[in-house]
């Protein structure tokens, strides 16, 4: 009884925290790019505040001297400017390793139009954001990779307005992720900022996807926001001649249910339909595909047929310029690398990537793995952490739920069973995820499997709550081979489930010729190549294998990588170098994906 009481208290506190979070940052409307937007991208003035003194100075008020004896120890004018979207670390040399506060300022003109509403929408800010409009705080948001917005209809003024954003990327013990993670902590306003204009009542959100395990039945919903919530609604797919009508209730909610003979989306034929959602006061257009994804026994079925995930892990970073990827052009470079490798699947790690990357992958015929940054040493015992995890999951699903290319929601990576409250928290998050979206696969990823006597033992019972058992294993790099790879044995909890190798590989500095090349300490391409060849031998004997996902596409920055010769602050596990050069291991996977798969 005591254990149940503690657990109840934990989730009660988390629920209270979640409610308070929702009041500070409104749920972002979906499909912003299809709405009437004014971009606030471009150069923003900034104040760099390593001491955190800006709150004491109240810099958002921008006070000006009135008497000859007046002065203020801050100013945006005369200071540096930073590009938005973009991280601040790569834009100024003195901010390369900076973790702390930067104040951003932007002025914009606005005309107040009767019957219209105005929202300030951020694609993402890493990590904490406090937002001020015309000297008044309008809200805050925590989380570095998901969108948020604030309604400013009654806060803007005719003519010139000023928005100031306090951005803080300092790592937090109870943050998501926490204090330690193996990627670079790029801070700043890293994604687009828009003023979004709507009518008094508008289509805020919708979910239009195939019903679970169906090839022709759409089951979804539409939500209207505003003073006129009860309206007639039409969902149209002109190409199929569909004009489905429904009615929203007094809370603005309407169910959607209709059937059609769809051409199903697949990597081979990534078919998307123009979909129009219209009510009496608003119309919004989207491109939506329809497909089925499910698990049957030890197989994953796409549109009723077994599918093998030929994957690659991708970080949201442009290695060539050592900066956060922030545009569709950036996404095109990264995803083109995946297509050239022969992938039909991308694992976008370890956080939700830019929405344009998800949409582009879908158009290119790449299945997508979406993930929240619950990474390794999360402080699950902190009363606020379960609520933060739930909020980030909700924001990720809200943004991407209509993207049929997204087939997997990932809720954690490499957490540890001995961490207090880990298992209970993640079981609850899995349940919440399935309630929000019952149509996709849900997974957690583990690296705690044992490897002894040439036997891999997967024992963590949290695997039983995932649709696919997903393991990261670095045999040949962090763990020596113990026998012939093709003779590796497997002992798996929940053994009838499909299994995916979500990370494997080793580090190599592109082009280095250090001897002996067959030793890990050489950091040679030959040693990395050897790891991959042995892994492929093991995969041929891996039971229930439904996919492989090398770590990773390209070398990326990580402050945890300290070797002064071979790493220099970079994780060198990429199949591509930071300059885009193909390592020998690239060709091993290329040949595997194009020639050697018979699943």
What does this entry show, briefly?
The protein is an alpha/beta fold. It has eight helices and 35 strands.
| Envelope shape | globular
Count of the separate structural domains: 3
The CATH class of the largest domain is identified as: Alpha Beta
Distance between the first and last residues' Cα: 49 Å
Give structural notes.
- The model is unreliable at 1-24 (pLDDT under 50).
- The relative contact order is 0.10.
- With 599 residues, the protein is an alpha/beta fold.
- The chain has an eight-stranded parallel beta barrel, surrounded by four helices. Strands 3-2-4-9-6-7 form a six-stranded antiparallel sheet, with no helix packed on it. Strands 1-10-5-8 form a four-stranded antiparallel sheet, with no helix packed on it.
- Helix 1 crosses helix 5 (385-400).
- It is globular and about 80 Å long.
- The longest helix has 23 residues, at 2-24.
- The protein folds into three domains: 31-198, Jelly Rolls, CATH 2.60.120; 211-290, Immunoglobulins (Immunoglobulin-like, Sandwich); 295-505 and 526-554 and 583-596, Alpha-Beta Barrel (TIM Barrel).
- A hairpin with a 4-residue loop joins strand 13 and strand 14 (242-247).
- The two termini are 49 Å apart.
- 18% of the residues lie in helices and 31% in strands.
């Amino acid at each position: 009884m005591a254990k149940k009481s503690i657990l109840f208290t934990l989730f009660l506190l988390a629920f209270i925290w979640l409610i308070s979070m929702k009041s500070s940052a409104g749920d972002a409307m979906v499909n912003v790019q299809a709405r009437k937007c004014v971009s606030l991208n471009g150069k923003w003035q900034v104040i760099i505040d390593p001491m955190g003194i800006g709150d004491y100075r109240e810099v958002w008020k921008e006070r000006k001297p009135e008497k000859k004896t007046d002065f203020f120890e801050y100013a945006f004018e005369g200071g540096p400017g930073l590009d938005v979207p973009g991280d601040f670390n790569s834009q100024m040399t003195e901010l390369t390793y900076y973790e702390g506060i930067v104040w951003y300022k932007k002025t914009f003109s606005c005309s107040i139009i009767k019957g219209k509403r105005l929202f300030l929408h951020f694609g993402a800010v890493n990590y904490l954001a406090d937002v001020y409009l015309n000297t008044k705080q309008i809200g805050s948001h925590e989380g570095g990779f998901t969108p948020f917005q604030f309604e400013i209809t009654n806060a803007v003024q005719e003519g010139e307005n000023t928005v100031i954003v306090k951005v803080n990327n300092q790592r937090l013990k109870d943050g998501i992720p926490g204090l330690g993670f193996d990627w670079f902590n790029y801070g700043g306003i890293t994604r687009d900022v828009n003023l979004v204009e709507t009518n008094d009542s508008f289509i805020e959100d919708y979910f239009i996807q195939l019903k679970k395990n169906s090839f022709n039945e759409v089951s979804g919903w539409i939500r209207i926001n505003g003073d006129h919530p009860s309206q007639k609604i039409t969902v149209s797919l002109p190409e199929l001649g569909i004009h489905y009508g429904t009615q929203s209730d007094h809370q603005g909610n309407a169910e959607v249910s209709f059937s059609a003979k769809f051409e199903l989306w697949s990597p081979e034929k990534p078919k998307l339909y123009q979909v129009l959602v219209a009510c009496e006061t608003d119309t919004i257009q989207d491109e939506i595909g329809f497909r089925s994804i499910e698990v049957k026994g030890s197989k994953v079925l796409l549109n009723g047929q077994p599918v093998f995930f030929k994957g690659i892990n991708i970080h949201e970073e442009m290695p060539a310029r050592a900066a956060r990827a922030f545009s569709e052009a950036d996404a095109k470079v990264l995803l083109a690398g995946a297509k050239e490798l022969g992938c039909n699947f991308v694992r976008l790690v370890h956080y939700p990537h830019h929405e344009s990357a998800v949409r582009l992958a879908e158009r290119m015929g790449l299945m997508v793995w979406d993930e929240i940054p619950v990474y390794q040493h999360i402080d699950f015992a902190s009363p606020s952490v379960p609520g933060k995890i739930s909020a980030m999951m909700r924001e990720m699903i809200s943004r991407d739920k209509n993207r049929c290319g997204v087939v997997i929601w990932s809720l954690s990576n490499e957490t540890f069973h001995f961490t207090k409250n880990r298992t209970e928290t993640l079981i609850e998050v899995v349940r919440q995820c399935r309630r929000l979206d019952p149509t996709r696969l849900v997974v957690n990823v583990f690296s705690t499997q044992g490897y002894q006597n040439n036997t891999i033992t997967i024992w963590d019972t949290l695997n039983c709550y995932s649709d696919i058992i997903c393991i990261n294993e670095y045999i040949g790099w962090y763990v020596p081979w113990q026998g012939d790879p093709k003779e590796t044995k497997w002992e798996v909890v929940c053994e009838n489930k499909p299994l995916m190798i979500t990370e494997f590989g080793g580090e190599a500095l592109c082009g280095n010729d250090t001897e002996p090349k067959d030793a890990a300490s050489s950091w040679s391409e030959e040693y990395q190549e050897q790891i991959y060849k042995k892994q492929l031998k093991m995969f041929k004997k891996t039971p229930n294998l439904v996919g492989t996902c090398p770590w990773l596409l390209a070398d990326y920055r990580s402050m945890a990588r300290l070797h002064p010769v071979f790493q220099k602050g970079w994780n060198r596990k990429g199949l591509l170098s930071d300059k885009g050069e193909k390592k020998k291991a690239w060709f091993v996977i290329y040949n595997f994906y194009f020639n050697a798969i018979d699943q």
